[in-house]
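User: For my dataset I need records formatted as: sequence, then structure tokens, nothing else. Please produce one.
Assistant:
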Amino acid sequence: MAKYLDSFLEHRLDQERKHISAIEDNNDPINSLITVEMNITELCNRVCSFCPRVDSRIYPNRNLSMDLKISKKVAADLEGVNYKGRVSFSGYGEPILNKEFAEHIKIFRDALPDNIIETNTNGDKLTVKMIKQFFAAGITALYVNLYDGPQQVQYFKNLFLQAGISIDCYKLRYHWEGVADDCGLTINNRSGMLKFDKKQIDSQTFPINNPCYYPFYKMLVDYNGDVMFCANDWGRNNIVGNVLKSYVRDIWLSKKMQEIRLRLIDSDRNFKPCNICDIQGTLHGKSSVDRLVTYYAQQK
């Protein structure tokens, strides 16, 4: 039996270890930031059962895309703090539906020549031309989520082979029904936005008495530049800043973020949307927790 339900977590833990190694002699609290997630579109061409989009009344598809100026601002801010973490194009939509996706990649690659730049995709719209374009722009890794069945595996292997991309530069993630009890996913209710069956809901007592590390290591930048306190805040309950109005560093180390973090590390989820969120939240990110808790103690 695997240590984690979602084997991809091992990959994330390895990335975290490499991040720690890169900044081990630096006490700057900005280095708690391991992932900057860019939600560059509010469009998705799929409706998945584990996503709030399964109910369009709760989460409708919207033709909203991130402007290049937002990526330029974030990239410049990260370059200014000597950011060592990764940039992930993921968020709440299908990234490759943003028609300027390659330009977004290049902006970050020019500013951060040595950082990991990655994206998730369902692969439905992916072509050999796109793959070549994305890697030429500077993407490091492309993760394809396979939802339909094992027949997709060879198809995508051939696609990357035709594009001349090494198997070390992409991952195929098996998520089709039946591949595993959990479909190879660490499923959660997306901060209460996703409604599971009534029996499961009734069996869960909220708020969960458990710490959560997400706001200690990951920042999500929305399509309009807003920064969510947590990447799982699909309902956009807690907006802690906007990158067009403030520096990334200032938002990350803001008093509002500090207040939220100190509550979560004390297992206090009694505020929206954490009070209805069922995510475990402690699978990785402990190094960032330690770094920020130490920083806060020094500020007293």
